[in-house]
Amino acid sequence: MAILKLYSSSVTACTRRTATVLHELKIPFELIEVDVLSGAHKTPEFLKFQPFGQVPYINDDGFILYESRAICRYVAAKHPHSGLIPTDPKANALFEQATSIELTNFEPSAGKAGLPFYLKKLGWMDDLKDVPANLEILDKKLDAYEAILSKQRYLAGDTLTLADLFHLPYAGFVSLGSDIMTRPNRPNVARWYNELVSRPAWLAYQDGVKTTTEY
């Protein structure tokens, strides 16, 4: 069987999310580098496979799929033993609830706060004017996270799921310029966050995503 091919830039946020889940599942993949700074993701050839001109997309033995969360769900569904997508109806409902929390309550502010910190680290931008307002929004959202995580280890219960991993990379990027994820007034958020960013799958790509065929 052909190795999964990941078409993307090695340093983008959604590439990091996708590669982290691939690493968690020990799925070999080849990174096909896309030079987003030169606009390679907007070329006609790229748009044949990703009509929005965004990264990443995958080619899994001829099956093309884009959107990082969809890719992560697909590969996790192919490896149900991992438990990253619960199959019990109630557990799955709690998982879906948690994924919705990440998408609607976390990423809007965490992405807008964390991405500028990350882009500044890369030397791609130095405009942080919108960061304080988004950190303020995120701070209030994390109070709800504290309430949830005071009752269970992870967002969907006591087992790690994709819902937790989806918070990477923006949770990590926020921490490049703020202590908001580890403040003492939210010990359970800090516990949860520190566990996530300590996982080998996240640490593997601190210097950028790379082709990974051995684990």
UniProtKB/TrEMBL annotation:
Catalysis performed (reactions): RX + glutathione = an S-substituted glutathione + a halide anion + H(+)
One example GO MF annotation: glutathione binding
Domain of life of the native organism: Eukaryota
Enzyme class, spelled out: transferase
Membrane spanning residue stretches: none
GO CC annotation terms, alphabetical: cytoplasm
Residues annotated as domain GST N-terminal: 2-83
BP terms from Gene Ontology: glutathione metabolic process
UniProt KW keywords: Transferase
Alphabetical list of PROSITE patterns matching this protein: GST_CTER (PS50405), GST_NTER (PS50404)
Residue ranges occupied by any GST C-terminal domain in the UniProt entry: 88-215
EC numbers on record: 2.5.1.18
Family: Belongs to the GST superfamily.
Protein name: glutathione transferase
